[in-house]
Known about the structure:
The complex is a heterodimer. By secondary structure, chain A is of the alpha/beta class. Chain A has two domains: 33-193, Glutathione S-transferase Yfyf (Class Pi), Chain A, domain 2; 203-376, Rossmann fold, CATH 3.40.50.11810. In chain A, 44% of the residues lie in helices and 10% in strands. Chain A has helices at 32-41, 78-83, 85-97, 113-119, 124-141, 150-165, 167-179, 193-199, 201-206, 223-226, 249-254, 275-278, 280-298, 309-317, 319-324, 337-344, 363-369, 373-389, 397-401, 411-415, and strands at residues 46-48, 54-58, 64-68, 72-75, 102-103, 144-147, 185-187, 216-220, 258-259, 303-306, 334-336. In chain A, the strands form four sheets. A four-stranded parallel sheet of chain A has the order 9-8-10-11. In chain A, strands 5-4-6 form a three-stranded parallel sheet. Chain A has a two-stranded parallel sheet with strand order 1-7. In chain A, helix 5 packs across helix 7. By secondary structure, chain B is mostly helical. Chain B folds into two domains: 3-111, Orthogonal Bundle (Fumarate Reductase Iron-sulfur Protein, Chain B, domain 2), CATH 1.10.1060; 122-224, no CATH class. Helix content of chain B is 58%, strand content 0%. Chain B has helices at residues 3-10, 13-25, 29-32, 41-44, 47-51, 56-64, 68-75, 97-110, 114-119, 124-133, 152-159, 161-166, 184-196, 199-206, 208-224. The model of chain B has no long low-confidence stretch (mean pLDDT 94). Chains A and B meet through helix 2, helix 3, helix 4, helix 5 and helix 6 of A and helix 5, helix 8, helix 10, helix 11 and helix 12 of B. Bound molecules: iron/sulfur cluster (2 copies). The site of one iron/sulfur cluster has 15 residues of chain B, from helix 4 and helix 6. One iron/sulfur cluster binds at residues 36-42, 56-57, 60, 91-93, 95, 97 of chain B.
Amino acid sequence: MAIPINLPVVQPGTQARKGNFARRPEDAPENLRERTLELGAKGEWVVHRVPEPCVEVPTRSNGIKRVPLQHTWHHKSCGQCGHIPGYSTSIFWLHRKLGLEYNDPRDQTSCTAWNYYASATSNQAAQAAVAMRNFAAAYETGYFPQIHCATSYGHYKEVRAEMVHHKELREQVRGILAKMGKPLVMPEEIVHYSEWVYAVRHEIAKRKVLDLSQITVTVHPACHYYKLVQEDAIYDPDVYGGQRTAVVTAVAQALGATVGDYSTWFDCCGFGFRHILVQRDFSRSFAVQRKIEAMRDEVNPDVTLTHDTGCVTTLDKSQFAAQAHQGVKAAIPVLSEAQFAALGMGAHPYRVCQLHWHAADYRPLLEKMGIDWRERWREFEDDVERLKANPGSFLTWEDADGEWAVPAAHPDHVKHGGR
Amino acid sequence: MTERAQLASQVPDSEKERLFNEVKADLRFGDYLYGCYECGICVAVCPSARFYDFSPRRIAQAVAREDVELVWEQMNGEVWECSQCFSCLLCPRGNNPGGIITIMREVAVKNGLHSAQQALEGYTRIIYKIMSTGTQVSPDMIRPEAFPDWGPTAKETADNLEVWRRAMPPDTMHTTSASWEVDDKTLTELYLIWHLSGVLDMIKALDESLHMILVDVMEEKLEEAGYPLS
Lengths: 419, 230
Ligand code: SF4
Ligand code: SF4
């Protein structure tokens, strides 16, 4: 099959199946899931098996990845929770709306990889131990890790490969974990939330309440999702002919939006890890000149969708300064596909999607989607006033969907001192 | 003579050799470099190469040729320009130039090279945050003075932080000084990892005062939890 020039449309109900470009078995890349299971059988570690029900999705190497639908342990992202909180909230909201249970743990640290890729103030053993501590913590609850950040996901896949390949690293990490009374546990699959969204995209589409057929999106695939330890990223023969990762794009298409292609899709966003924090001239220039401008000139989308913390941050926050320069065309709203899907299913743009934390103007997008953002903002401002009048109270999931009721003070929250 | 060339002339060859050998001794090195075709494919996809005088090819080539002098120079400068995006994993030789750079940076930090200290100037508050709270960019770091180019949202966020954090449904996220609420026991386990894996020693080589502050934060918790520190 030739590689199609135009984007093929994903038909609803598409089943996972093999691509059309099969490798000879002897050329097949290493299957780290199988190696994980082999090491489990040898007693090197406990394998945390994917809970049923799961969805089988196609991978780059024509393999199958098992994505659990529920009973998931949400490995949150520090950047998402820290400054794009509607990202995490939307992921949780989608689970709740689909009736899929999950665990949002406090016994979780960041993967610490943002810092590691920025400053190198860590080392291989420490990074592996952080990953394995989190995996062991998930195993103790019985819930299976679903990883919100693409950098955590990519980094954990690096850790898995290193742990599979180097016995001495396994021994070192086993020793560290033993000191805290934890076993060595490796999940059967390393699963990113965007793989879960891909797996449930038709269920989301069934529950859509907005017509998104007038919406054109561009997609920025996250480097750490598909460039790091590449073989088990999702590639679907019906999306880009299986030549580009299908996550995000397949979701937008299932929701009925048009996905526009642009020439610099492979470029990173310019995040740079260290750069976004202390050398942002690079991040801003790269994001605007290589990504935003190309999208604007070639597609002129209503929104750009991506599936990682760093990418939302860089693409969203870099546009304000660029607008100050005459002649720089900017302001494409930037959302995660989880937020876009949640909006499509009727989520509140502020209570759930928390769009007030975003920098690029998203209001024209909401208008085009048929969302009365003025009225929704007024409701949110009412929420805020009532919360102010009730110290120690907070917005609940029920509040997020329903009519406002004065929330009662939450004992846990009071205990933690509103940190 | 440039400043770097001057510095290079003062560092004995044996020291440069020692640092190079440290890079090569990393467990990952054998998985990251298989020589170099010098084809430049990594440069074509590299974001940092577009904006800086930076080239992953030059780095892979220097390390593969064991050009100890050039590797030392790179370790003292351009490695910090890499964006760690790993686009260069497209390498037809199967190299991981970004990964080699990670190792080179690590050796620079571990040995307290002045260039690493310079590159990380202004960054130490982030190291403190991640190592002490277990999360990186916490809501209270979004200050307009720190992020003036983020536009009015940085100020609005800072002004409304406490109440906006309560105006979201997930219980774990009603926080301002960490991205989510991390249990004390979890944090203590993280501190133990930093101690046992030699990360605190790296911090000491990089920045003594940061090291002192971190040890202060961690020691009490570790002792309380009954973890011996020696
Ligand atoms: S590192 Fe790889 S891609 Fe870069 S020049 Fe060498 S062989 Fe080519
Ligand atoms: S990881 Fe570094 S060297 Fe490789 S492509 Fe990205 S910026 Fe360039």
